[in-house]
Design goal:
Layout lengths: L13 H12 L5 H8 L3 H11 L5 H19 L6 H10 L6 H11 L40 E11 L2 E10 L5 E7 L4 H15 L6 E2 L1
Parallel strand pairs: 1-4
Antiparallel strand pairs: 1-2, 2-3
Helix pairs in contact: 4-5, 4-6, 5-6
Length: 212
């Protein structure tokens, strides 16, 4: 093996480390002396120093703004959201971004979901409540003679690496198509309403619709 020069043995990060050291010690020792001892040029140091005060470009500013937004969502989730759910939350707020970008920025900031990955049984039906119960007009008659005549809906829990996600869906019994759906990390009335509104807007049924 041939001999390597001194510069070949130096890590690529050394020049930056030297510049940072000079920046910290410049008030105690002359910059010229520090550069001579560390064997770097004064012009190189001053060029680095000038770059440190440079304004971030448009892409850097966008990344900084997006990072601040995702950090807010991450803290609001009590540090349980990973990149998929943070991406979904930001998109719901009208923030244009990709899931890959969110994952990259989270890695850069060291944000890791602390969700407990122990799988638990999920219950999507709650029969213990004081709310009024609608009569069962469908009465297990799952036949239909036209579209938008009978819709049936249900909620299911889906286990992911980020925890439980809940899917609400509405099916047209005649066409057997899903006419509306919604997904959320919270199982509440809003989830069901969002699925219903999607179906109503897409299909625009008349007053003869039976929704079960």
């Amino acid at each position: 093996m041939g001999k390597k020069s001194r510069s070949d043995l130096q890590p690529a990060a050394w020049p930056k480390m030297k510049y940072q050291f000079i920046q910290e010690q410049r008030l105690a020792f002359p910059v010229r002396v520090l550069c001579e001892v560390l064997e770097i040029s004064e012009s190189g140091y001053y060029a680095w120093q000038k770059g440190q005060g440079r304004e971030p470009d448009r892409h850097q500013k966008e990344d900084q703004e997006l990072t601040a937004q995702l950090e807010t969502v991450f803290e609001q989730s009590r540090q349980t959201y990973g990149s998929p759910r943070i991406h979904a939350a930001l998109r719901s707020k009208g923030v244009s971004c990709s899931r890959r970008k969110i994952a990259k920025l989270m890695r850069k900031k060291g944000l890791v979901s602390c969700w407990r990955r122990k799988k638990r049984k999920v219950c999507t039906t709650d029969s213990h409540h004081n709310q009024p119960v609608a009569p069962n007009r469908l009465n297990r008659d799952f036949t239909a003679t036209a579209v938008n005549q009978k819709w049936i809906g249900d909620i299911t829990g889906i286990w992911t690496d980020e925890g439980w996600l809940y899917l609400a869906a509405l099916e047209d019994l005649y066409s057997r198509q899903i006419v509306g759906w919604a997904m959320s990390g919270v199982r509440d009335e809003r989830l069901v309403e969002d699925a219903l509104w999607m179906a109503l807007i897409r299909r625009q049924p008349d007053s003869n619709l039976l929704h079960h």
